Amino acid sequence: DPNEDTEWNDILRDFGILPPKEKPKDEIEEMFLYLQKEAEGKMNPEELEEAEDDFDEADRKAIEVYRQQRLQEWKCLQRRQKYGELREICGEQYVKEVTNAPEDVWVIIHLYRSSIPMCLLVNEHLSLLARKFPEVKFLKAIVNSCIQNYHDRCLPTILVYKTGEIKGRFIGVAECGGIYLKVEELEWKLAEVGAIETDLEENPKKDIMNMMTLSVRNISAHEDTNTKSSDVMKPDIT
């Protein structure tokens, strides 16, 4: 049996008289199960390194390719999922957390007062967006801890930073989207200034804006019609 594991067969293989011993089917399946498991992210690099001893040089090269690929994907994922929550800070942390944030990180900070309902709504929406976009740093801070004597009419205030500079600002109820603000509308606003990469295809408020425009036009047309009718009914005074 050329596949029999004997010293004589090993000598014949060394001289090229016998072909290399074939891997048993179950061993090959085991190798590909390892590769599949690792490719799916179910095996970490340390586990894979321990398993390499069971494979030959060709197997190790194939595994190394998969491992490096998965390692890079894992590192990228770790960088992207660094945040993932709306975190509270105080004024003393502002420079460190916002102005001096890493240059490749977008920072969105909400200055709020808990007694203002619109501020609470914005915090709810930002919490959802923080989970959806974990690569972005979402922060909130009670306005008095950062700015003294800040007017309530300027709240909510949302500031968007990148490389220590303000890239976008939404000050007051109207600029933030109104009292009926939806999370998708806020997402779109933040995407417009470049802070997040949204999967929304168009402005969620587009339909509402179109309806408002159409309503205004209808009212104007109705008024014009009434005016013309009134002109027709006016007596001809000479």
UniProtKB/TrEMBL annotation:
Residues 36-196 form the Phosducin domain. It comes from the Eukaryota. CDD domains: Phd_like_VIAF. One of its GO terms (biological process) is protein folding. One of its GO terms (cellular component) is cytoplasm. It holds the Pfam family Phosducin. Belongs to the phosducin family. This is PDCL2 protein.
